[in-house]
Design a protein that fits this description.
Structural class: alpha/beta
Strand content: 15-25%
CATH superfamily: Ribonucleoside hydrolase-like
Radius of gyration: 18 Å
Strand order of the largest sheet: 3-2-1-4-5-6-10-7
Number of strands: 10
Mean pLDDT: 97
Number of domains: 1
Length: 311
């Protein structure tokens, strides 16, 4: 039986790679995709999600638009990383598949309440606004979810949008706080891991060498996306964040971490959106998340390349 997942996303080239990986993997059943404002505004993220589904040949996937702004703040976006469309790099055709009616948060609630308990895994790759709205609307979903596996935060790597905060958490820290406190089994895939999965020239070349439309588009997305981080970090290639969530579901043996307490800073201007990760267990606060710290980067790229190669 494939594992049922909902992907909550703000595509984003790395989100697009995560969606491609999920749709190419028979172990996973993507029951729906919910879009949220984040890397770019909602009008683009919901369109980009549909374009990526069509790139994978999966126009059957239901895509819903969710929140167009954070719970309590003005929206902060990241066109400086992702380009003005959010998916700069390849030229993808306008999507022909329709956006489904209804709000993304309602789809999350309705799906989790309709499926058997412990059946659905939620995979947020974006600011957590939709997920928090769903939990606030129907608190019972917390006890029905199998797990939340999210990309966000950082501890040992610091932040990538401020010295303390990673983008997804920073954009909507109040939403992240709600999600981390919800009591759902939680796995956090932070910058500590994603900064180890770098899109080196040789890794990108393998996608181009596939000679397929998805392979070429993936190479173009990674080449566009990595330029900003190569300049910033002085690395060969940039970190490929979001596909690590899907790879973790497919091959958890590629990853290691530990159960710790993670709390979100919501009131300090200096460290707003910081994921305060108690890696060393210096507080008595309850452990609420598996914090992933290490990855077999070659194994990750083997998996990603093999799967995208199937499309």
């Amino acid at each position: 039986m494939p594992r049922k997942i909902i992907i909550d996303t703000d595509p984003g080239q790395d989100d697009a790679m995560a969606i491609l990986l999920a749709l190419a993997s028979p172990e996973l059943e993507v029951v729906g995709i919910t879009a949220v404002a984040g890397n770019v505004p909602l009008a683009l993220t919901q369109k980009n999600a549909r374009m990526v589904c069509e790139l994978a040949g999966r126009a059957d996937i239901p895509v819903y638009a969710g929140a167009d702004r954070p719970l309590k703040r003005e929206l902060v976006t990241a066109e400086y990383v992702h380009g003005k469309t959010g998916l700069d790099g390849p030229v993808l055709p306008e999507p022909t598949m329709q956006l489904r009616d209804g709000h993304g948060a309602d789809f999350i609630v309705d799906t989790i309440m309709a499926e058997p308990e412990g059946e659905v895994t939620l995979c947020p790759l974006a600011p957590l606004t939709n997920v928090a709205m769903a939990l606030e609307k129907e608190p019972r979903i917390a006890g029905r979810l199998r797990e939340i596996v999210l990309m966000g935060g950082g501890c040992f790597e610091g932040g990538n949008v401020t010295p303390a905060a990673e983008f997804n958490i920073y954009v909507d820290p109040e939403a992240a706080d709600i999600v981390l406190r919800a009591g759902v089994p939680m796995t956090v895939v932070p910058l500590d891991v994603t900064h180890k999965t770098l899109t080196t020239a040789s890794r990108v070349a393998r996608f181009r060498d596939m000679g397929t439309r998805p392979g070429e588009a993936a190479a173009q997305m990674m080449e566009f996306f990595e330029r900003f981080d190569e300049q910033k970090y002085g690395t060969d290639g940039g970190p490929l964040h979001d596909p690590n969530v899907i790879a973790y579901l497919l091959k958890p043996e590629l990853y290691s971490g530990r159960q710790i307490n993670v709390e979100i800073e919501t009131s300090s201007e200096l460290t707003m959106g910081m994921t305060v990760a108690d890696w060393w267990g210096v507080t008595n606060r309850p452990k609420n998340a598996l914090w992933v710290r290490d990855v077999d980067a070659d194994g990750f790229f083997e998996l990603l390349t093999e799967r995208v190669g199937r499309l």
